[in-house]
Design a protein that fits this description.
There is one protein chain. This protein has 115 residues and is mainly α. It has one domain. The radius of gyration is 17 Å and the shape is elongated.
Length: 115
């Protein structure tokens, strides 16, 4: 895959994973560590080692990876939807800055306790 992900075709699961990291903002080394672990488990990949190499070695198709990715993110997406609904219920309409994930969860917990 061309290093310029803005104009590259996705030809395999490894290319897609790179695009999700570069353009989608996934951070498997930190915030999204559990997502990568979930993907490894669902795709029957080794628990350790380079994720792209594991995808390639297993010959994971793009179609299988997409379906598995959406299965893996479903709990995270549901949590985010719940958080957004909670912020809406609390009347939060904007912020002056973005909060790290931990602070978002802390704010959400505070809102739950106030309810």
């Amino acid at each position: 895959m061309n290093s310029d992900t803005s104009s590259s075709l996705i030809s395999n699961a490894s290319d897609l994973w790179e695009i999700l990291k570069v353009r989608g903002g996934l951070q498997p080394g930190t915030y999204d560590m559990e997502l990568e672990a979930d993907l490894r488990k669902l795709l029957s990949l080794p628990d350790t080692g380079d994720f792209n190499e594991a995808l390639t070695a297993k010959a994971t198709t793009t179609e299988v990876f997409v379906a598995t990715f959406f299965q893996a993110i479903q709990p995270y997406a549901a949590t985010m939807a719940d958080l957004l609904a909670m912020f809406e219920k609390a009347g939060a309409t904007h912020s002056t800055h973005n909060l790290p994930q931990g602070e978002v969860l802390s704010c959400a917990w505070s809102l739950i306790q106030l309810s």
